[in-house]
Specification:
The protein is built from 9 helices and 15 strands. The chain has helices at residues 107-116, 134-149, 165-172, 187-194, 198-210, 246-251, 254-260, 277-283, 289-311, and strands at residues 2-7, 12-16, 21-26, 31-32, 35-37, 46-52, 55-64, 70-74, 81-87, 91-97, 122-127, 153-156, 176-181, 219-223, 229-232. By secondary structure, the chain is of the alpha/beta class. The chain is globular, with a radius of gyration of 21 Å. Bound molecules: guanosine-5'-diphosphate (GDP) and zinc ion. Zinc ion (ZN) binds at residues 260, 263, 268, 270, 273, 276-278.
Length: 313
């Protein structure tokens, strides 16, 4: 058995049980929930392998062991294919900023929509704390309130002055953590702050990923000196969800789903239906209006996509 610690598209690097690394290939086609995958094997996958006949230093992955969970996104290149970001993770850290770059509206909610279906805890990091003015700190307070209320951890960090770094290290200890975020938020710098040189190694991934054909397939697992593993992924530009139905989205905004049992219609999409507990929740201050606006935006995109696909035939 081995664990996939790096994937480059056609090659997979395994860490064997003896602690060696082995370049490996895979044969055959793999699907996930009946959907096409751009990459059959993900970093974090536990696999069985054989040695290539006559080529002892090359492995052939023969079996992917059942995944505890996985993080999957719609492929940015192939609308109807899914791209596996990682498998068997304990948690996900989403690095984001309020300033430099500006917080992209909806990105956090889109990211949470991606992880929610797989029951993976998410820690939301707001980095570059050192740049925040009092009015930005108010925005931070607002975000902290919105996301902590629905069960996500929020940590304010600065790779520059070390704010929040010990707290983050503590969270990472002895866990397998996927770290992600839009480029420029300071993910590499933060990794460097967590463990010297770690960001240097990961930045090579980000740089390479800006160009070549393997953009979306680079991910790599690194061991932490204080215990645990980090799976670094290339910066995400944007997340679309044409592979989801309206109901999928409704089910994966966790607080909406909880309230939906009180909606008049059991298939309520929380848009124009009467007796909607989510819309009432907004009025009562129980539901974040920001989350709701982002939700509507995603539903609109899915509707538009479905419309164009219908009239294309
Ligand atoms: P990545 O693309 O997310 O890996 O981002 P980088 O780590 O490459 O950082 C992007 C830029 O933001 C670099 O110029 C960093 O020096 C800067 N940066 C990263 N973290 C911080 C921070 O906490 N505070 C400030 N002021 N700048 C930061
Ligand atoms: Zn409703």
């Amino acid at each position: 058995m081995g664990t996939v610690i790096k994937s480059t598209g056609s090659w997979y690097i395994l860490r064997t049980e003896e602690g060696h690394t082995l370049q490996s290939r895979i044969r055959g086609k793999f699907r996930l929930d009946g959907k096409k995958l751009t990459n059959p094997v993900a970093v974090g996958d536990v696999v069985s392998f054989d040695r290539e006949a006559g080529e002892e230093e090359v492995g052939i992955i023969t079996h992917i062991h059942d995944r505890k969970n996985y993080v999957v996104r719609q492929s940015p290149r192939q609308k109807h294919a899914l791209h596996l970001l990682a498998a068997n993770v304990d948690q996900v850290v989403l690095v984001s900023t309020i300033k430099s770059p500006d917080l992209k509206p909806g990105f956090i909610d889109r990211f949470l929509l991606m992880t929610e279906g797989h029951d993976i805890p998410v820690i939301i990091i707001i980095n570059k704390a050192d740049l925040l003015e009092p009015e930005d700190l108010e925005i931070y307070g607002g975000l902290e309130f919105i996301y902590e209320r629905i069960g996500y951890e929020v940590i304010l960090t600065s790779a520059e002055d070390g704010t929040g770094v010990p707290e983050l290290q503590d969270k990472l200890k002895n866990k397998i953590t996927l770290i992600s975020g839009q480029s420029g938020v300071g993910k590499s710098s933060l990794l460097n702050a967590i463990q010297p040189e770690l960001g240097l190694r990961t930045r090579e991934i980000s740089d390479a990923s800006g160009k070549g054909a393997h953009t979306t397939t680079h991910a790599e697992m690194f061991e932490l000196e204080f215990g645990g593993f980090i799976i670094d992924t290339p910066g995400i530009k944007n997340l679309s969800f044409n592979n989801l139905t309206i109901q999928d989205v409704a089910h994966n905004f966790r607080e909406f789903f909880e309230l939906s049992h009180e909606c008049k219609f059991n298939n309520c999409t929380h848009r124009n239906e009467p007796g909607c507990a989510v819309k009432n929740g907004i009025e009562e201050g129980l539901v974040s209006e920001l989350r709701y606006m982002n939700y509507l935006q995603i539903l609109d995109e899915i509707d538009a996509q479905n419309y164009w696909e219908r009239i294309n035939y």
